[in-house]
Design goal:
273 residues, alpha+beta
Length: 273
């Protein structure tokens, strides 16, 4: 190839580059969509977890929704009351800070307390475990302890202790990622200041619960009868606490014959009496 051919080729390529640059510039000007500076300001205040717990597609979606009045200032569970206050000052709007909530795992069936049907040696994923004969635990509602919830938690608030997942409420942001991924539906939100927990999710009859787990709820209704404010009810063989009525007196903890109901410190440490 002679020098003239090379120069022509370079000229053609250069010309095409300039042409494409002009086209891109014109297109960017023609299709330009103004960005509301307030959206960017709100986005700058959001934590950036992009967990989706607010119900919008990430922090960008929530920022736009807040500006368009499609979401409240307290929609971000990760940011909490501090974020709500900052957004109120930024936008000059009143925002009611939602009561802080945290996740908790409704199971106390540790390796010592809960029986197993077989030894699981597969992938450490609760969903895979659950797909094999319903899971290795004899209790069909018990935590499988493979740590799938631990893997999705971005805040290091869930840990496996003695084969059961437990939540550190001081780190939990109520993003609900663990709730959505648990194949046993064992995890739910509760008020941050709730100190009393029923650590069981089995609705089996008492006889079956006894044969599968030493600490499972047998639906005896002793807690229901002893609660001074009627905050506990037993439905389908399982005790439930109404956190709106519960005064955290601990009477149910004392009276529970199975040690199924414990306080927060006990729930996190998995202390078996």
């Amino acid at each position: 190839m002679d020098i003239n051919s090379i120069l022509i080729a370079l000229a053609v390529l250069g010309g095409l580059g300039i042409l494409f640059a002009i086209i891109l510039y014109v297109a960017s000007r023609f299709f330009y969509v103004p960005v509301d500076e307030r959206v960017e300001a709100v986005r700058g205040e959001l934590p950036g977890a992009n967990c989706g717990a607010c119900g919008f597609p990430g922090c960008d979606g929530l920022a736009a929704a807040i500006i368009n009045d499609d979401a409240s200032l307290s929609s971000c569970p990760v940011g909490g009351a501090d974020l709500t206050e900052r957004l109120s000052e930024l936008l000059g709007r009143v925002g009611d800070a939602a009561a802080k909530k945290v996740a908790f795992v409704k199971c106390k069936g540790t390796e010592e307390c809960a029986k197993s049907k077989f030894e699981y040696t597969g992938i450490r994923d609760c969903r895979v475990n659950a797909s094999l004969q319903g899971g290795n635990k004899a209790c069909s509602s018990g935590c499988l302890g493979c740590g799938t919830c631990v893997d999705v938690c971005q805040f290091d608030s869930i840990h496996i202790l003695d084969g059961v997942a437990v939540v550190d409420r001081e780190k939990c942001t109520a993003c609900e990622m663990c709730i959505g991924i648990c194949p046993r539906n064992l995890i739910e939100l509760t008020p941050y200041d709730q100190d009393v927990y029923v650590l069981c999710n089995s609705q089996d009859k008492g006889k079956d619960v006894r044969s599968n787990c030493e600490v499972g709820c047998i639906g005896c209704k002793i807690c229901e009868k002893e609660c001074p404010v009627n905050a506990i009810t037993v439905t389908n063989n399982l005790a439930y606490i109404d956190t709106d009525d519960c005064i955290n007196c601990g009477m149910c903890i004392v009276k529970c014959p199975r040690d199924t109901i414990i306080d927060y410190e006990g729930a996190f440490a998995i202390k078996n009496k």
